[in-house]
Design a protein that fits this description.
The chain is of the alpha+beta class. The protein folds into 3 domains: 110 residues, Alpha-Beta Plaits (2-Layer Sandwich), CATH 3.30.70; 96 residues, Chitinase A, domain 3, CATH 3.10.50.40; 146 residues, Trigger factor, domain 2 (Orthogonal Bundle), CATH 1.10.3120. Helix content is 48%, strand content 21%. It is built from 11 helices and 12 strands. Helix 1 packs across helix 2, helix 7 crosses helix 8 and helix 8 crosses helix 11. It starts with a strand and ends with a strand.
């Protein structure tokens, strides 16, 4: 039995190393003080016939609201005493406690049991001097050629031509949807819309009716929208369109010359553009190789430090992942969601073990992050976001500062692991 100021606490294992049973006793004096506080609060906020507000006698208050006040006292004292035990005993709960076996009677100590899962305490071992492949991050010429060609394609322009539209062209159109009587529907008119006839997502009716048209042509046709179409208003429906062709556009890809390098990429000439692309690709290759090294080290460290995880940690991780995907627009049935949770459970377990071990190594190696380092990281992030005032305020919040601290500590841990690793040369 240990004491937490005025409390008596007995902490017991409860089925696993991270699941604890806290048997807590609150002295009757503390209970009575809480009761008097609640009585006074009730006096100040209730109004009874025949009494001025704030002047109702205590015995009347207790007689009238005794049950409600006891509930308020119990809730307040349990919450306060549990939080005090967690703080004083330096516990790290990962779930809300389950409160049971409450023995509550005025004039006597309050006792109750709190079942809680704690963050697993990890003592890492065998994490230095591990073998890891050191990849030579050379970028082949053909990869540079491919990147430059992708840049040319992204910089392609649609230029006007005086001919009929082909499958690889685009048409500039004005269009409007029609109602059942063939009259234009309000707020459906679009002017100067560029329709790429070879675009993968273009519905076949548009492609079929617009190929072969030229400036000045007019087309009326119907479009059957699929049941999974993005626009809910048109999903699964057939809509009629009236389309006027304003012109035909041909896709022109510019040659990779000095003029292209200056106008598109801001480089002095094509040689400088090629050198810059190679430099960027080599940087990406180094970063990719570094991440692969780190994950290979993580796999070895997890294997050398086996551990079981609290179910609540895995469940919470998967729930956060599901909610994040929902925010991004993912829709699924309950069966699909359950299947997703099952398929991603091994990934969730690995990620949790990874984070626990990285934190434990940071503690074991006395890794620290200074306020100046956090400030520089946040300043860089704000500049990367364009630094509008609201973004800068958000990035400087306590939550973002803690995220920055954790990220910087993790980078320092991985730098240490790579520095101490035994590198085996291999060509990427």
């Amino acid at each position: 039995m240990t004491g937490s100021h005025y409390l008596k606490v007995d902490i017991r294992d409860h089925g696993s190393p991270w699941r604890k049973l806290l048997v807590i006793e609150v002295p009757s004096e503390e209970l009575e003080r809480a009761f008097q506080d609640v009585v006074e609060e009730f006096r100040n906020r209730v109004q009874l016939p025949g009494f001025r507000k704030g002047h109702v006698p205590r015995n009347v208050i207790e007689l009238q609201f005794g049950h409600s006040m006891e509930h308020e006292v119990l809730e307040r004292v349990v919450k306060r005493s549990y939080e005090s035990v967690v703080r004083e005993q330096k516990l790290d709960p990962i779930s809300y406690p389950t409160i049971e076996k409450i023995d509550f009677s005025r004039g006597k100590p309050l006792t109750y049991e709190a079942q809680v899962e704690l963050r697993p305490k990890v003592t890492p071992k065998d994490y230095l001097g591990l073998d890891v492949d050191a990849k030579e991050t050379q970028v082949p010429d053909q990869d540079v050629d491919r990147a430059l060609e992708e840049l040319r394609q992204r910089a392609a322009e649609w230029v006007p031509v005086e001919r009929e539209a082909g499958e690889s062209d685009a048409v500039l159109v004005n269009y409007v949807r029609l109602n059942a009587k063939g009259k234009p529907l309000r707020k459906t008119e679009q002017k100067d819309a560029l329709v790429e006839l070879g675009a993968p997502g273009l519905l076949s009716e548009f492609r079929k009716n617009l190929i072969g048209t030229k400036a000045g042509d007019h087309r009326d046709f119907e479009v059957a929208y699929p049941p999974d179409f993005g626009n809910e208003e048109l999903r699964g429906r057939t809509a009629a369109f009236s389309v006027d062709i304003q012109g035909v556009r041909e896709r022109r890809v510019r040659p990779l010359d000095d003029e292209f390098a200056r106008e598109v990429a801001g480089m002095r000439d094509a040689a400088e553009l090629r050198a810059r692309v190679r430099l960027n690709m080599e940087g990406e290759a180094r970063l990719r190789a570094q991440r692969e090294q780190e994950e290979a080290l993580v796999d070895q460290i997890i294997a050398r430090n086996p551990m079981d995880l609290p179910e609540s940690m895995v469940r919470e991780y998967l729930e956060e992942l599901v909610q994040r995907l929902r925010v991004e627009g993912r829709e699924w049935s309950p069966e699909e969601e359950n299947r997703f949770r099952g398929e991603y459970r091994p990934m969730a377990e690995r990620r949790i073990k990874r984070d626990l071990l990285v934190d434990a190594i940071a503690h074991a190696e006395s890794v620290t992050v200074t306020e100046d380092e956090i400030e520089r990281a946040l300043r860089g992030a704000a500049e990367g976001e364009g630094a509008p005032p609201e973004t800068e305020r958000l990035l400087r919040s306590a939550e973002h500062r803690e995220r920055a601290r954790a990220h910087l500590a993790e980078r320092k841990v991985f730098a240490l692991l790579r520095e101490k690793a035994r590198l085996k040369m291999a060509v990427a």
